[in-house]
Amino acid sequence: MALVRLRYPWSVPSATGRREIPGAPARADEAGSAESETAIEARDLVRRFGTIDAVRGVTFEVAQGETFGFLGPNGAGKSTTISMLCTLLTPTSGIARVAGYDVVADRAEVRKRIGLVFQDTTLDDYLTAQENLRFHAELYGVPRSQTGPRIDDVLEMVGLADRRGSLVRTFSGGMKRRLEIARGLLHSPRVLFLDEPTVGLDPQTRTHIWGYIGELRKREAITIFLTTHYMDEAEHCDRIAIMDGGQIVVEDTPEQLKASVGRDRVQISTPDDEAAIAALRERFALDATMSEGMVAFYVAHGEVFVPRLFAELGVPIKSVSIARPTLDDVFMNYTGRTIRDAEASGSERMAASPWMRARRR
Fold first, then answer.
1. What distance in Å separates the CA atoms of residue 129 and residue 44, rounded to the nearest whole number?
2. Alpha helix (H) ranges present in the chain?
3. 18 contact partners, CB below 8 Å, separation of at least 6
4. What confidence score (pLDDT) does residue 345 get?
5. Residue pLDDT, tens place only, 319-342
6. Which of 195, 199, 223, 321 is deepest in the core (most CB within 10 A)?
7. Whether residue 144 sits in one domain with residue 48
């Protein structure tokens, strides 16, 4: 079977000494540039599966060189959005552009300029790390004179240079994810998409992966777009868009989002949670909700409020905890539930949906 090449227009030195991609839009800082400083643009993006709206009117922009994250529970529409941006799914309606090209009208041009790391591994376990990368280079039309040095570079970047000749089936989950990141970088993309890049990995390996991502951002000078449902991972982003129910509910920097909550989160455990919620509303004018099995609410200066709570609530308190605002608090503040509660309810809705029942048949 003949090998199909995408004929990636490999970068070549320009008259200014920069590396340019023939046929690509000029960069934003060059005279007469046709390309703005926007790496990704989405306007009223919708994706519908039958009667289910997986993505509902999403609008956002990502600047060149930015690390932008979609934070939200499983089923929020993050992966569906990234699939549309990567031309793997056609939008039901709306417009999206990546690296200056329309994801529907200019699919081939978009694909030449992006790298993609999926949630699930797509490596060939029966090839070595180097063979996987060479196959990718061939698909993207990377000149053979450039392939060897580029493979050396990306393997060194992700700490796998000494395992280049090892079969991928001998790799751990973290090593496979690092190799997939190296593969996504091999053809020098302008935008790298990471769909849940550390899902299923242990905390230590997740930390290492983020170290590699930070290094590649500095060395490659590319735009990074990622999806995650891990709050600590979202802290690595320049900006975050929180998704829930197929929509963006809020968008800003991690610090600004936490500052928008502005209050401490207090959680209490009581023998009668419904009575506690009613007492908080009647005696303190506080709106409380159930979160992770406890009564949760927000107040300014929680450590000052708690003694008053014990004295005036009128419902016995078994335990209490106080926390400064986190991104989970941001999610709860804008959606009324934590991300874990949202994932649980989302799983129940999907399991009960006619679409999912039909897929099981």
1. 40
2. 78-85, 107-112, 129-139, 144-157, 173-185, 203-220, 231-234, 254-261, 273-284, 302-312, 327-335, 339-352, 354-360
3. 27
4. 61
5. 999 988 888 888 888 887 777 777
6. 223
7. yes
